[in-house]
Amino acid sequence: MTAEPFGRLLYTDCRPGTGRGAGGGFQVQAQSAGVDSAQAAQAVGSLLYEVQDAWVVQRRPVEDFPLGFAHASGAGGYGTAQGRYVGKEATGGRQGNHLADCLLTRDPALYGTIRPAQLWRSPFWRETPWETADCPAFDGDLEPGPLTLDAVTDWARSRPDRGPVLARLLSVLEDPAGDHVVIVAGDAGEAMTWIAAATLLLPERRALDISFKVFSTSPLRSGQRVVAAPADLNPQLGPGRAGGAFLLDATECTADDVARSERAQFLVGKLTGGCDPYDLVDAIELAEELSGGDWPGDIAALHTAWALTLPDDPPADPGALFRWLTGAKPDQRKAHGPAVGAVLLDSAPTAEVLRWLDGAVPGGLDLDRDRVRGMLLEAELAEVHGGQAAPAAVLEHVPLSEQSRRDAASKLASAILLSSGETDNGPVDAGQIDLVLRLTRRHGISLEPSPLREQLHGLAVAWADRPRAWDPAGWALRDYVLDLTCDELRERLVRRDPQSMLDPLRAFAPLIGDRITDPSDPLCPHLQAAAIDRLNSGQRRARVSDLLEDLRRLGQPGASAAAASLQRVLLLWGVVDADMAVTFLTTLPPADLNPEIARYAGDFLARSEPTAGLLDILANLDKAGRRPPSPRLTALIDADHAVRQFVARAGEKGSSVGRAVDLLCGADPAVVIIRRDTIVTALFTTPHPQLAARVFTEFPVTRMGSKRPRAVESLLEVVSGRLNRPATTFDEAVGTAIWCLRILAYPELLEKRENRHAKLAAIIRAYGGTLDQKDFKTWGADVTRHLDQQSRYEWDVIFGNGAKRGGLIQGINPWRSA
User: Fold this and answer.
1) In the predicted structure, residue 675 carries a pLDDT above the cut 70
2) For labeling, which of 321, 481, 501, 569 is most exposed (least CB within 10 Å)?
3) Helix, strand or coil for residue 571?
C-alpha cells in the first residue's frame, strides 16, 4: 500500500440525485477525496468510453459490445480507465449508456513496473456505479489482467510476422513527436495486446506518457497518441490509406512501412528470440538510467544495459559498451563503470579499448590493473606483429606483481627472438625489433640484453646500413644497441673506404658523439668532424682550439698521433676552413702539422688584408721561429716588430729618441694604422718631451696620388678621440690640450706638408668650440697655466688672441728670441 493511493472517479448516466451534478444525465457519478478539478477534467476529456453508434443502431446485444480502455497523461497527471457499454440510460428507455471507472494520480511511481495497457480486464475495475457520490480511493495493489509479460511474450512469438510490425510500431512510439497511431482490430483485446507489447518495450516512465484509447469513434481525429478502431466499422482504414498517421492492421498483421530503429529491432529481436522477458524489461529500465535522460539517445546505453543484465553472455556489440563508458557522466561511470569494464575485459577488447581502460583506472575506474596492463601489452604486441607502432607515450607506472612483470618480459623477449631469420632487412626483422623495443619502453619493462645479443646486433647492422631508418629515442636497451652500433661502425671504418662512411657517421654523430671521447678511438675524429660540420666558422675555430688543448694534455706520443688523425679526418670531411687552418698552424708543433693544412693556412695569410688579428698571428709565428715564406708577410712581421720596439723605447728613460723615431718612421704605414692606439698611448706617456713632436714632424709625407695609407691622419684621429669622446674628464681634456700645444710649439712642425700643424690645432679649436663661456674660461685657465711661452703663443693663435705668426713665416723664431 502506498501513502498516496490512486484517486478514483466513475462516470456514467445518473438519475437525479445519484451523481455529483445538480441533476441527472451523464456526469461524474462518484469521486474519491483528493481528486482535483484538473484530474477530473482530464478523465472526462480523455478516458471515457466511446459508444459506436452503428452498433447501437444494429441493436447489438450489450454483452457483444467490447470493453473500452484508455490512458492519458497531461496537466492532470496520469489517468487510466476501463469502460463498458451498459445499454439503456438511467432514466427512460434510450440506448447509449456507458460507464468508465478511472484511476487518477500525479505520482508515476504508483504504476510500478506495470504498463497501463496491462491493466486491461484487471479484476478491480467496477462494472456498476457506486452507492454514493463519494467513493474510496484505490488502496489496493495494481494487478495486470490477462496481458501479463509472459502472455504478451507468448503472443509476440506465436506469429513470426508480428515481430517486424511490432518493431515499426515501437520505432514510431519511441519518438515523442512521432506520428499518430491507429490500430485497426476486430477485437479490442487484440488491439490492447499490441499496445501492451509496444509499451512493455519502453521504459516505465516513457510508457506512461503514451496516451491511448480502445475503441475510438473518430480514430483519425482523436487526441490520444494511439487509438484503436473496430475493423468492421472502418473498412476504409488500412496501411497506406491515411496520411499523417501510422496505420496498423492487427488482423492482417501489416502496417505502414516506416524505418525500424536500431533500438526497436534490438528489443523486438530479444522479445521474439527466446530471451527471458523479465531480463528484457530490467535491461530497458537500466538503459533509461544509463542514458542519463537522453532518451532514446545512443543505443550504446541499451547494449550496455543488456550486457549488465546478463553479464555472462558475450555482448553482441562491445564497441557500444565502450562508447557508453567513454561518454558516461562521472556518477554513471562510478556506479556502473567497473561492471561495464569487466564485461569489456571478457570480450576480447581491442587495443584502443584497453588503452582507454588503462588510462581510466587511475581516474577511479575500479578494475584489476594487473589484468588491464597485461591485456594491453598483448594487444599492442599483436599490433606490433602487424607492423603497427604502439603509441609513443610511456605508460603510467603500475605496481605489477612480480609474476606479471616476468610474463611481460618473457613476451617481449620472445617477440625479439622471433624476429630472427633472413628478411629483407638482413638476418633479423629490424623493423619488428624497433617496434618491440619501443613497446618495451612504453610499458616500463626491463629486459636482460645478453640473451638477445644476436638479434640486437642484427638491428645494429641494419641500422648502420640505414642510419636514418629508426630513431632510438623511444627504445628500451637504447645504450646497449648504441654500443653494438659503435662496434659495427668501427669495423666498417677498417674494412671500407672511409669516404663511404661519411654519410652514416654524419647521421649517427648526434647519437653517439658524447659516447666516444677517447682520441685514440678511430670513431672519435670522425664524430668530431661531424660535429664541427654543423658549426659556423667562429664556433669551428673555438671547437678546434678546445680539441687541441685536450690533445696537448694527452702528452706525447699520443697527442701527435691523435692530432695527425684529427687533421686527416677533417680534410676528408671537407670542413677545414681558413680560420681552422690558421688555428692548427699557430697551435701545433711544426712536426705535427699536416702539410696540406699548413699550405692552406699560409696561402690564406698571404692573401689576408693587414689586421690586428693577422699581426698577432704573425707575431706568434715569428716568436715560435716559424716565419711564413711570403715576402709580404715577412715585411708585416718586421714592421710590427719595429712598432713594438718603438713602443718599448718610448717607455724607457735612457733610450735614444732618434732611434725610436727612426723605427716608427721606417714601419709600414698600414701597420702603424693598425697599432695606432698603442702608439698614441706611448706618445702620451713617454718620458721624452720631444718624442711626440718629432714623430708628427718626421713621419714620412704621403706623396700625392699614393695608395699608401695616411698614417699620421690615423694618429691624429686617435688624439681627437681622446679629447672629444663622451667619457673624457675635465682633467683629461686639460692634459690632452697641453700635450697638443707643446707639439704645436715644435718649430719644424710648421715646415712639414700635409698641414699636420693646422690639423692638430683644429683638434684643440674643435674641443674649445664645444664648451660654453664659463667652461671654456676654466679650461683655458688650467691649460695656459702649464704652458711655456712658445706653447702659450700657439694657444693665442688658435683662439684669436692677437698673436701673429708672421715672424715665424719670415724665418724668425719668436720663442728662441724670447
Assistant:
1) yes
2) 501
3) helix
- pLDDT tens-digit series, residues 492-503: 998 989 898 899
DSSP string, 333-388: HHHHHHHHHHHHHTS---HHHHHHHHHHGGGT----HHHHHHHHHHHHHHHHHTTP
Q: Can you tell me whether residue 709 is helix, strand or coil?
A: coil
Given the C-alpha cell 497527471, which residue does it identify?
A: 77
pLDDT of 427 reads: 75
> Which residues, 6+ apart, have CB-to-CB distance to 13 below 8 Å?
24, 25, 26, 89, 90, 91, 97, 98
DSSP code per residue over 296-316: S--THHHHHHHHHHSTTSPPS
Instruction: State the Cα–Cα distance between residues 314 and 764, nearest whole angstrom.
Output: 105
CA dihedral 385, 389, 393, 394 (to 10 degrees): 30
What is the per-residue burial (b if ≥16 Cβ within 10 Å, else e) of 763-788? Answer: bbeebbeeeeeeeeeebbebbbeebe
- Residue 471 CA to residue 464 CA, distance in Å, equals 12
Q: Tell me if the bond preceding 215 is cis, omega within 30° of 0.
A: yes
Contact status, residue 452 vs residue 413, Cβ threshold 8 Å: yes
Reading the block at residue 105, the C-alpha cell is 494520480
Q: What is the pLDDT of residue 340?
A: 92
By the 8 A CB rule, do 769 and 720 touch? no
Which helix (H) or strand (E) segment holds residue 322: the answer is: helix 318-327
Does 703 have pLDDT greater than 70? Answer: no
> How would you class 263 by CB atoms within 10 Å of its CB: exposed for 0-12, middle for 13-18, buried for 19 or more?
buried
Domain map (residue ranges) of the chain: 7-119, 149-337, 349-495, 708-818
Strands 245-249 and 180-185: parallel
Half-sphere exposure of 315 (CA within 13 A, CB side): 28
More confident residue, 745 or 411: 411
Q: Give per-residue pLDDT as tens, 625-668.
A: 777 777 888 888 888 888 999 999 988 988 888 898 898 888 88
136-150, 163-177, 252-266, 709-723: the lowest-pLDDT one: 709-723
Q: Can you give the pLDDT at residue 816?
A: 28
Contact residues for 98 (Cβ-Cβ < 8 A; gap 6+):
12, 13, 48, 49, 51, 68, 83, 84, 85, 86
User: pTM here?
Assistant: 0.69
For residue range 408-431, list pLDDT tens digits in order: 999 999 999 998 765 555 678 999
pLDDT in tens, 173-190: 999 888 999 999 999 999
CA distances from 175 to 118, 191, 225, 280 (A): 22, 20, 11, 20
pLDDT given for residue 7 in this prediction? 96
C-alpha 818/C-alpha 807 separation (Å) is: 12
Taking the CB of residue 39, how many other CB atoms lie within 10 A of it? 23
The answer on pLDDT for 443 being more than 50 is yes
pLDDT value of position 3: 58
CB 239 within 8 A of CB 194: no
Q: With DSSP H G I counted as helix, E B as strand and the rest as coil, what are the percentages for the chain, rounded to 5?
A: 55, 10, 35
Write down how long the chain is.
818
CB 188 within 8 A of CB 158: no
Angle between helices 188-200 and 162-174 (to 10 degrees): 60
Per residue in 537-590, pLDDT tens?
888 888 888 888 888 777 767 788 888 898 899 889 888 888 887 887 788 787
d(CA 35, CA 137): 9
DSSP one-letter string for 176-213: TT--EEEEEESSHHHHHHHHHHHHHTS-HHHHHT--EE
Separation between Cα atoms, residue 603 and residue 14, nearest integer Å: 132
Angle between helices 691-698 and 676-685 (to 10 degrees): 140
How far apart, in whole angstroms, are the C-alpha atoms of residue 483 and residue 464?
Answer: 12
Say what the pLDDT of residue 807 is.
35
Report the amino acid identity of residue 549: E
